[in-house]
Design goal:
Blueprint lengths: L6 H6 L8 H4 L12 H4 L4 H8 L5 E4 L6 H12 L2 E6 L5 H14 L2 E6 L6 H13 L2 E7 L3 H4 L2 H4 L3 E4 L5 H13 L10 E3 L1 H10 L4 H13 L10 E3 L1 H8 L11 H15 L3 H13 L3 H16 L4 H17 L5 H13 L5 H14 L60 H17 L2
Parallel strand pairs: 1-4, 1-5, 2-3, 3-4, 6-7
Helix pairs in contact: 6-7, 10-11, 10-12, 11-13, 12-13, 14-15, 14-16, 15-18, 16-17, 16-18, 17-18
Length: 441
């Protein structure tokens, strides 16, 4: 049962100023990083940099709580370089000057600069020569797309790496480590976490490890030990309270979370608008905006497709708006998209066509590219007969001319089988059939 304690007192531990669990559990070397194995795994780019002690400045971008600061901390710990953290939005140029002075004395400083997309030009101009010399190894962190939000002068001097949301297994690994660690974690508290509580912790924050660990610590330190066995028992209700997210879409095994996502897509595919809105509501109430957005984009192209291409474009706009405004307002553009996709005519002809083409390629059902289509821009191509008989369609009436495009081995193959569930694809089918017949006369 949760004690009626002031959260502030829990977090500062009676005035001791104890740092949050997520901070204390930050890895001190590359091997301890949870997730991001595409960057830090054996033989991957950051692992190689650390082992060779040839660090490059970099920008890490991705969702909050996915390990950007942890990677920076681990890089510094593994290389034994001095490590400093600043925030581009709140720390001043003077703070950067202090780091630069330290770099002069120690040789190299790894600087973790959070919210690097908010770096002002005076701060940027000060940093650039230090990045050029390598005295400061900059590790910038941002949740924004760096190709859009970060000045080209900084981008040109850094490597850009995407940090991905942690998987449920990654989150579980971090929780187990925190529960076992007696020095920085909660290992001295004799905590027993129920399987339902563990599942909710791994799912509800959608890859945000910082939120997960801080909620776990709040749950542990605000729950009285059992008088019988002395253990701190943390169940699903306690975790829900500390995360402020109800377990609306999970069961004991966590399978129902995926069942709801599956039902969401199948309801739209089946044109049941009310059922689709119901499952949308369950996902949004659980805070799973990421799954909703990803699934809607898939549905728009997989299930509606060429029957209503404009609906796909409007779904992209709705998802973009939802990502920018966040919950709870995100429910509005998403509801618009769900209703339109549900009511819209459906066609899976595009996914069926590409899957059929891929199946052919994987089975070896392909031949040599016709000579007329081969690249003719290099010296000697004419002698090989490459591109010599190619007919440029724009030189002919209606910008079309009959010629062979498929390899001879599969020249009669047809992948696209148009449907007639909407006026748009009806028109596509008519045009496709006319062109196919003309090509094969």
């Amino acid at each position: 049962m949760l004690l009626q304690l002031d959260i502030f007192n829990i977090l500062i531990q009676g005035g001791k100023g104890l740092k949050p669990l997520a901070y204390r559990m930050r890895p001190q070397k590359i091997e301890d990083i949870v997730g991001q194995q595409h960057l830090v795994g054996p033989g991957k780019i950051i692992d190689r940099m650390v082992k060779a002690r040839l660090l490059s400045s970099m920008i890490l971008y991705g969702p909050p709580g996915t390990g950007k600061t942890s990677i920076a901390s681990a890089i510094a710990g593994s290389t034994k370089y001095a490590f400093r953290t600043l925030n581009a939005a709140t720390d001043s140029k003077k703070d950067l000057e202090i780091v630069a002075e330290e770099a002069k004395m120690s040789g190299t400083v790894v600087l973790m600069l959070d919210e690097i997309h908010r770096l002002t030009k005076p701060k940027q101009d000060f940093l650039l020569p230090h990045l050029e010399k390598g005295s400061i190894i900059l590790i910038g962190a941002t949740t924004e797309n760096p190709y859009i939000s970060i000045n080209p002068a900084i981008r040109s001097r850094t490597q850009i790496y995407e940090v991905k949301p942690l998987t449920e297994e990654d989150i579980k690994q971090a929780i187990d480590r925190a529960l076992a660690d007696t020095e920085n974690g909660l290992g001295k508290m004799n905590i027993e976490l129920s399987s339902e509580a563990m599942t909710h912790l791994t799912q509800a924050t959608h890859g945000d490890l910082r939120s997960t660990l801080n909620a776990l610590e709040l749950a542990a330190k605000s729950t009285a030990p059992d008088t019988k066995d002395g253990k701190v028992h943390i169940d699903l209700a306690i975790v829900e309270e500390c995360l402020q997210k109800k377990a609306l879409v999970q069961d004991k095994d966590g399978d129902a979370h995926y069942d709801v996502i599956s039902a969401f897509q199948k309801s739209i595919r089946g044109s049941d608008t009310d059922a689709a809105l119901h499952y949308l509501a369950r996902l949004l109430e659980a805070g799973d905006l990421i799954s909703v957005n990803r699934r809607l984009l898939t549905i728009a192209y997989e299930d509606v497709g060429l029957a209503n291409p404009a609906a796909a474009a409007r779904t992209v706009s709705a998802v973009t708006a939802a990502e920018k405004i966040g919950l709870p307002e995100a429910r509005i553009p998403l509801a618009n998209a769900v209703i339109e996709l549900s009511i819209s005519p459906k066609s899976n002809s595009a996914i069926s066509a590409i899957d059929a083409a891929i199946a052919d390629v994987r089975q070896g059902n392909y031949g040599d590219v016709p000579d007329t289509l081969k690249d003719a821009h290099y010296k000697g191509a004419e002698k090989l007969g490459h591109g010599t008989d190619y007919k440029f369609p724009h030189d002919f009436p209606h910008d079309w001319v009959k010629q062979t495009y498929l390899p001879a081995k599969i020249k009669e193959r047809q992948y696209y089988h148009a449907k007639e569930n909407g006026r748009i694809e009806q028109a596509f089918k008519k045009q496709y059939d006319l062109l196919r017949q003309a090509q094969r006369k």
